[in-house]
Amino acid sequence: MKGRNTYHFRESIIILLKTKWIGPYLILPPMLAFMVYAEAYLSAHGITGIFTMEQRTVLAIWNGSLLLTLIAGIKSCLFFSGIWESSWFRNSLALPVSKSSGFWGPFLAVLSVVSVIFILTTGAVLAALPEPGRFSVFQIIAESYIPVVWAVSMGAFLGLLTTGTAGSIFFTALLLIGFLAGLPIARLPEWLFVIIPPVGRIMTLGLVFPQGLIQTAILIIHSIAVLMLGRLLYSIGSKRR
Amino acid sequence: MPPYISIGGYSDPPRIPHFSIEAEGGELVAIVGGPGSGKSNLIKSIAGIRSAGRGSIRIMGARPGTMRAREMAAFVFQNSNFAPDLPVRNQLDRRIALIRGVAVRNVQRNVADWCEKMELTEAAGQIPGQLNRSQLQMLSLAPLALTTPSVAVLDEPLTNLSSLRVSSALSVIISLLEKASVLVLVQNKSPLVKRADRVVNLA
After folding, report:
1. Does the beta-carbon distance from B47 to A91 stay under 8 Å?
2. All domains of chain B, ordered by start, with CATH?
3. Which ipTM value was assigned to this complex?
4. A102, A112, A213, B9: which has the highest count of C-beta atoms within 10 A?
């Protein structure tokens, strides 16, 4: 039957295109511009070490990715918990829609919107800054996309586990820990990076060629694991109601 | 042929100790219960969005929540039939298209005509928060009027309606009886109790 698998995806997309949900992403360009300017300033004054032009482009892509990860994660927690807790969503499951579309529809809708913003952000960085030379552009883009997917997956999991506000606070803390743990000054045992999302490490390793493939793989596993846990929670939740 | 709807040994302690009923096509059954008597939980259990606990519920022989049951049944809940952020008409378009299994553009004219007939054209263009309860309740009956379910289950369908809209809503519900079995969960004073073929007390 037509629309059986896409009903919740379409409803979610329409909701997500409202100013309330899309608006916060507008702070991304000025924040990114500020970060690029600040990093250039700090580098010029010898505070962060000298970055080559290639590295500045790569750093700007990573900055864009991490800012988007932060916004997407917070908004995902709020959106998913709001939609899955709502009475209208529960009542809509009485319609002839596929049951799994109630989970995958909103998830893919958020991922689609965030992916479009990622493409626009990365495209703007690549258009404004010099080509990253010996770095593989495709590889950098693919790697910097993974934290964004991780954020949405984590948002889905936390949105089911707790309230939107609690989920956003937990997500922000987790992202901050993951980011700080990746800085060169952080001295943490290797095994801890299996638990902490290696979002910071993936970025610092990404500045040196060849880039952090193992960290990327760990973050992909993180994303899949939390997404599957979210799917499991969704199934349990819908049976228990 | 199985009954259109059958509920056997359903219980929702402490409110409903034991409840059984069977309804056939063309039959309007009023299930009567006061506020807090478990009517809303019962409709959710029939819809398959809440665990039924004890007892068995079947819609044309299918278990609640299965695709077959959801294809054949229409549910009107007392509240929250619409997403709060989207215009009601667009939601109705997509919902009715989904139930009929056609593209949205194929139902838009029908929805617009029905809204016009019910003098709800302007209201349908608003989001739910901008409408009063009477308008929302009337609009929530649109899928019943524009699709052909075999079973319809309605929770307090007339409670919030203004007196002017009650007769329109009644005619929508009565017209369903040509092909469907209709279960209405209502309080004792509802006009549907007088129209019902059978009245069953919930408690």
Report:
1. yes
2. 5-201 (3.40.50.300)
3. 0.90
4. A102
